[in-house]
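Follow-up to my earlier ticket, as requested here are the two runs.
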Amino acid sequence: MEKAKGRNTKESSRRDQKASTLGNNRFPWLTKPFVWAGTIILAALATALTSWLQPRFTGAIDAITESGDPISITYALKPATTLYDVSLPAGRPLSDADIEHLNRMKPNDQVQWLEKNGGTPLGARTLTVTLKGNRTHLVRVTDIRPVSECTEPSRGSLMLTGLGRGATQQSLVLYLNVGDPTKGAEYYSPETGEKVPFFPQKTITLTNGEEEYLVINLVPSNGEHCHVQVEFAVTDGNKEVRRRVPHEGPISIMPASEAMDVSAAEQYPKTYLGADFCKRIVELPEGARKNGFIGEDACGPGNVTRIVDGK
């Protein structure tokens, strides 16, 4: 009996010892302080690594989502219906059929047809531009200037319409001297009333979705026929981007003095009177321009619309 009791006591002792050993084997690191410290250090490193990677990962995503142009540029060239007259190059004479076709048009439509068929409307042109920011950060337009190629006019035919004479351009914000690409945009200072450079004293800043509306007056140079685009310099972070409009190609531009200045106008082999001069287009007879004026007899009997100073 006592032997059995002794065996039970020993077995119970062995079970308690085994349970204690199993319990310690489940969490062995609790018995080793240096392992516990190492675990804390690794957790801290993981947190630091996450904090380091997050802005870089976000920056990479931003770079992907903002990979296009820093600004969007939409534009429209004001139609030439209110400009002075139209110059046609030497290689584009007006045929009798052209004249008959023009005679069936309204005066404003004549100017548009002549422009589409090789003519250049004379006078300043107006380009309306809307700039829109495409970045989550601030971008700056730091320069606007003309990119031009200018030559002496190829004076073939001159169409005097009489439209817009004495009119002035309204609501113009910026001016570009087309014949001088070294000069940037100018504006009239409200303090002095004089034309002064817009950049670098001023800039145009845009954030994502923000828009800025501009009206740019393209001013031609006397005695020059220019083909011009407008170039915008944009600072996007630490880099500069340049974009030109119109995207489809340069604008053809010549000064109004081609028709208003007698010395220039007389260099055209042919000059026609149309639109607001004569009811039906006629060729200006030789000697009809006297002291800068065009007399009513130039249109022929019953064909005159009004008498206009031809200077």
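Run two:
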Amino acid sequence: MAGVEHRLVRSVAEPGATFQRTEKRQVGSSRPPLTTSLLRFCRSKNRRSSRNDRNVCSVSPDREAQPAWKTPGGDLVPQAQPTQAFVARAGVVARAVRAAGIPAPVTGVFLYSTRTPGLGFDTWQQKNSWSSGRVAFADGVQFAEGGTTRVDFADGSNETMQVLEAQQALTEAIGPPNDICERMPSCETLTITGGSLTTTDVETSHGRATVPAWSFTVQGLSRPVVAVAAPAGVLKSLQWPDPLPGLARLEQGLLRVGVLDWVDGKTLSFEVSHGLYETDLRAHVVEYDDLVVIGGSHGPLLPGGADVGKTSTGVVTLGKPLGDRAVIAEDTGVRLTPYPYLRK
């Protein structure tokens, strides 16, 4: 019984760039059935060589099957040949990134949780006072010394850090104040009447960790305020890079890129944003020697479909391992860093 063989052929988009083009051809019953989620096509001594055979990629994803390691949190968007619009956009983005200088990869441990886990208030006035930075220590209140501690992360790494003093931990927990109380005369100052060192669990780019924290007792509040006591220079805030200046708006039919979930050799998993009723979602990649540009495309909007946003998971397989090449988002031109613990 005849079947269909899928082959991914490397095609040249422009000098130094490659992307993967999918071909299908009928094969006889002597071929093995295509049942795995990753199909491997390698050159064989017994196979007749052709010009296309010399460029066949070694591994290609089956569009109908889902890889076993699929990241949770959205539908799988399969890889397909990049559209002409995507290839053109990738070229523009790559040139702009090189002109600005390819950003260095981010390093360090990033805090995914807030610096005040479980923060809650009894009244909206208390919440507004906190947001406005109207928090003070009661006269004569004393706190213990911070000292140093070692924090172990779920990925096996650890960090030795200085435990913040109570005042500094409170300042970093509140962050830059937004003084809504200027427009809310009913706001009152929250008064901290005591506190003690404790620990709290947080999510980080290196996995879950138990970190030092201050537990503050606040007058009139039914629960304590817990503030992370690890320095912001050690547990960094997760900040999305600013879009590369000067890039034109994303062309119609292309998808926006979110978090880079995972990098595993040749395989990249990342978020794509799209409309709920957009059809024919596909993930794309164009490779260069110094960087790769990822993103996707969609087909027409279904008739009568509302413009409702949704996030799904795109997966692409490169022609060779990523190595130290930068992963660049097609829509913003920013360098993406994998945060494998960001989604559960």
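The only thing I checked on run two: Residues 197 and 214 are 5 Å apart (CA to CA). Let me know what else you need.
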